[in-house]
Amino acid sequence: MSLFQPIGQKRLTNIAVVRYKKGGKRFEIACYKNTVGAWRSGAEKDINEVLQTTTVFDNVSKGVVAKKDLLKKVFGTADEEAVCRKILEEGAMQVSDKEREMHFDNLYRDVANVLVEKCVNPENGRPYPLELLERSLKDVHFSVDPNKTAKQQALDFLPQLQKSIPIERAWMRLSIQVSQSAQDELLGELQAMKSRVESKKTEASRLFVTCALEPSCFRRCDQFVRSLPEGGGQLEVVALAIQGSSSMPEIFDVARPSDTSDATARVCSDSRQGNVASQAEPRPVPAPAVKSGGRVFKCNTCGVEYTVANEHREHYKSKWHSFNQKLKSKGLPAVSEAEFDMDPLMGEEKNDLDEF
Questions:
Q1: What's the pLDDT at 293?
Q2: E strand or H helix at 244
């Protein structure tokens, strides 16, 4: 039987090494994992939360400490904290396999998040769920580049993604005001950029225009407003990305039945085949109605009202209500019951939002 004795050896279990080479010499410092990036981005201000110790090493793994006269010769100072700050800023971080894998996973998800925020499905004007976009990126064999930002990679890879699913950049909404002398010039410029003018009014000899246009045209529009004489024009970004069902044409006409109705007429639209068919579907028979005595039950999430308590309770158990709750948690607009039932792509989105 052997007896295991404790040893006085410190093992490098939670250390990230930052290495710096200068003047033919190598210097290393010991940091906590996943803190160097936060320090360089400015998210972490306390250097004590980044460094394991302010000691500067020649070799961290062997515990060889750098000599102070060598620090003064190379860095011009023997202050170890000042030397650590310089190494943190300019040194090369030694990343383990797990840390590198985690960084790539986070960057991959950031690319998908950029697509959610800046792109929409052109068929209904709504953004895709995050999980659906991540699967689509894998289907087209997207690989992240650690030397590029998430936004740059997302927009560069968008043409490849369009071959797999219908997706496009969401338009921007701008508010522009110019003097009446520049009115014709502004409208001609907006027409050349194929923008959509949503509202136009004249007040106090100035023209106020609210329009939607493609993001690629924003720089051109901004340069036009800046080129006007001083005080002649002003541009304001109302929305960086227009998302939601408000931009989708009204193609549904669903009559909501009364409490005593046995059936409801539904209009089904198939946008892919162009076939339209009307049919009567019986509404599920609810439990015996409990009259509320004139009270109105309202769901703020879906924007509907009920006068029967049982119907109100059943609504909170419906998939439509759950779907709108998940949209609301992501800051997205709710959909109507007609859109939930009729949209040909909604069935796919229902499943994806379970993990959205």
A1: 54
A2: none
* Per-residue CA distances from 43 to 8, 14, 36, 106, 315 (Å): 36, 21, 10, 17, 44
pLDDT value of position 248: 39
- Nearest by Cα to 317 from 335, 299, 291, 330: 299
pLDDT for the residue numbered 262: 40
- pTM for this predicted structure: 0.49
H/E element, 234: strand 233-239
pLDDT along the chain (356 residues), means of 10: 60 78 88 82 87 90 89 89 90 76 87 91 88 89 86 90 90 89 86 88 87 90 86 84 58 35 37 39 44 71 85 85 84 82 57 47
pLDDT given for residue 56 in this prediction? 92
Other Cβ atoms closer than 10 A to 259: 11
Burial class (CB in 10 A: 0-12, 13-18, 19+), 133: buried
HSE of 239 in the Cβ direction (CA atoms, 13 Å)?
Answer: 15
Residues 6+ apart with CB under 8 A from 63: 10, 57
CB 219, CB 100: distance < 8 Å: no
Cα 51 to Cα 14, 98, 100: the distances in Å are 11, 20, 20
Q: Are the C-beta atoms of residues 70 and 56 closer than 8 Å to each other?
A: no
Give Cα 33 to chain centroid, integer Å.
Answer: 26
Identify the bridge partners of residue 31 per DSSP, sorted by sequence position. Answer: 16, 51
* Number of C-beta neighbours around residue 329 at 10 A: 10
Pairing of strands 64-65, 196-203: unpaired
CB 307 within 8 A of CB 296: yes
**Cα–Cα distance, 190 to 206 (Å, whole number):** 17
Number of residues assigned to the chain: 356
Distance CA 210, CA 196 (A): 9
Non-local (6+) Cβ contacts of 121 within 8 A are 127, 128, 165, 166, 167, 345
